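=== RUN LOG ===
request id: a7f3
mode: sequence -> structure
chains: 1
length: 287
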Amino acid sequence: MLSLVGDEWTMLVMQQALLGATRYGQFTTRLPISNSVLTRRLSSLIKEGLLQRHRYQERPPRDEYLVTATGRALWPVLASIWEWELRWVPEHRQPLPPMRHLGCGAEFRPVLTCAHCGGPIATDDVTARWGPSGGWSRSLPTVTNRRRSADDRRDSPSGLFPQTMSVLGNRWAFAILVAAFTGTSRFSGFQRALAASPASIADRLQTFRDNGILTKADGDPHYRLTPKGAAFLPVLVTALAWAQRSFPADEGPAVLLTHTDHGHAFSPALRCDQCRELLTGATVSAV
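=== RESULT ===
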């Protein structure tokens, strides 16, 4: 999951695919992306099963890129990122447009709810524990990030989803934030849980403080989620739900979520804050 949603170009290509782009020229028109970077991302998304190639013309050969069921299921993650960046991150290379719910016609914000009982969900409403295939050692990637090519660096889209990628694009950052949501607050606790070097932990904690995601008062050993940090919960739980459906482990799920006060399994669902109806990928559009 991290290798896909932690790459900004991949997420931007999938965003445009879900908004209707199917042909190579449509992606290059909508995104400031080079041909080489786009070609690599499309190939990767086909390999991972999020897109499929369809030949629509033989002479000359022309292909289109269609979203698979796995790719369509990514929309709650993208909508949650869109909302978080729109609300909490003012510095963007290009202003993010608001979202429109085609069901009621209004500009809206997605609200995280429980798919089983429909109730709204905040940080304290969800309890997490490791499942049969879970554990820090198994859930962390074996490499920090894919080594970026010269084309990737030159055409970096940083600034479109800048702070989301500071979480999802670094394995220690993502793990630290997950640990913070599950109750870890001391430096020693992060280091013990993740078995990371002190320098890696310190670097990511400082980034989160600089970005206003975590806070720590002078003399207080505890790092605490800010309102901005707590608002990242929909991104985490929708990404987790998508990953566990799309890439299931033979032993069972890696993480088990419970709706704390109700005692039943928690599965995320997004609703429109205007009409309260359940959102679907087909009813979310840019204004």
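=== NOTES ===
The two ends are 28 Å apart (CA to CA).
The CA atoms of residues 46 and 52 lie 5 Å apart.
=== END ===
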